[in-house]
Amino acid sequence: MLGDILSTIGGLILLVAGGEAMVRGVSSLAARLGISTLVIGLTVVAFGTSAPELAVNVAAVQRGAHGLPFGNIFGSNLANLGLIAAVAALIRPLDVQSVVMRRELPMMLLATVVASVLALDSLFGDGLDRYAGSDGIVLLLLFTVFLYYTGLDMLAERARRTRTLRGQDPIPEQEAVDSEADSLPKSVALMLAGFGGLVLGGSLTVGGAEGIARSMGVSDAIIGLTLVALGTSLPELVASVIACLRGHTDLAVGNVVGSNIFNLLAVLGITSTTGMVSVPTDGIMDLIAVSALSLVFWVLSITDRGRVIRTEGVLLLVLYVGYIVLRVAYQAA
Fold first, then answer.
1. Could you tell me the domains of the chain?
2. Which of 77, 90, 236, 308 suits a disulfide with 49, CB 3.0-4.6 Å?
3. Cα–Cα dist 243/311, whole Å
4. H, E, C per residue of the chain
């Protein structure tokens, strides 16, 4: 069991280091293109920090651990809302832009509902609850829609930057981001190193988590919901904390919301098309918890003049910790 623990710890370290390197590399490239911090958070940072979940889940289904991806994805989304957004709000109140209220938050809720419905095959007389290849295709189609509208935002940002360079608009805040960007060769090197760390870290984490689950008699879903989900969410936590400390709360919000959308539509979609993702018998609790916390976050975002304040961050954190304790106690009973 000691070897499994060391493997898991080593894998998580590689995941965090790889995710951080990838985020820095792709963020530098995106910044040089003149994309706003919100769009960067919704796409580049969110996708980069969610890459550990994808690496872990693909490795898991290839190893036959069909229950771990479910716990990892929904556990990561719970951690994004109840831990990462909460900690970020405690550092600095989160400003939620109107475009996020109108489009990204409803998209996150829609993705959560669709993923929950697709999981409940037994309700429609189709045997065991699971995600199959057809479910993955549906999720990936929705992800394509999300990318389409986000791409329109990127084009609008490019047009605005062109007008700025021609002296037609004031200099935007994004210029400060551009000045911090790494050189092109360094950005590419960081991305490649990050990718390697994610692939190797995902394999080590899955192998160690499986060994721990077997030794302790704990299901793969619970290990994925807690240990692996928290470990693979560390890149999101680091990125959001750094963003808030630097005053870019819109980047932190985009990271959380974008990561949840990416996890549900892209990560779960790709994982389902590469192999079956089984839903544990008590997985309905996780589906309800993610849906409820997503709704709570949406309500908090549209109140108090579009801000998530510190007391609301405490509420999110209490809800998250309370559910994790309840979930582990239910499994142990």
1. 42-171+218-332 (1.20.1420.30)
2. 236
3. 20
4. CHHHHHHHHHHHHHHHHHHHHHHHHHHHHHHHCCCCHHHHHHHHHHHHHHHHHHHHHHHHHHHCCCCHHHHHHHHHHHHHHHHHHHHHHHHCCEECCHHHHHHHHHHHHHHHHHHHHHHCHHHHCCCCCEECHHHHHHHHHHHHHHHHHHHHHHHHHHHHHHHHHCCCCCCCCHHHHHHCCCCHHHHHHHHHHHHHHHHHHHHHHHHHHHHHHHHHCCCHHHHHHHHHHHHHHHHHHHHHHHHHHCCCHHHHHHHHHHHHHHHHHHHHHHHHHHCCEECCCCHHHHHHHHHHHHHHHHHHHHCCCCEECHHHHHHHHHHHHHHHHHHHHHHHC
- Give the pLDDT of the chain (333 residues) as one tens digit per residue: 778 888 888 887 887 787 677 667 766 766 666 666 677 777 777 777 777 778 878 888 888 877 788 888 998 899 999 999 999 999 999 988 776 777 889 999 999 999 999 998 877 766 678 898 999 999 999 999 988 887 776 676 666 666 665 665 554 444 444 445 567 778 778 877 877 787 687 678 767 776 777 677 777 667 777 777 777 677 777 778 877 887 878 878 888 998 899 999 999 999 999 888 888 888 888 999 999 999 999 999 988 888 899 999 999 999 999 998 888 787 666
Indicate the pTM of the whole model.
0.79
Mode of pairing for the β-strands spanning 130-131 and 94-95: unpaired
- Cβ atoms of residues 46 and 258 within 8 Å: yes
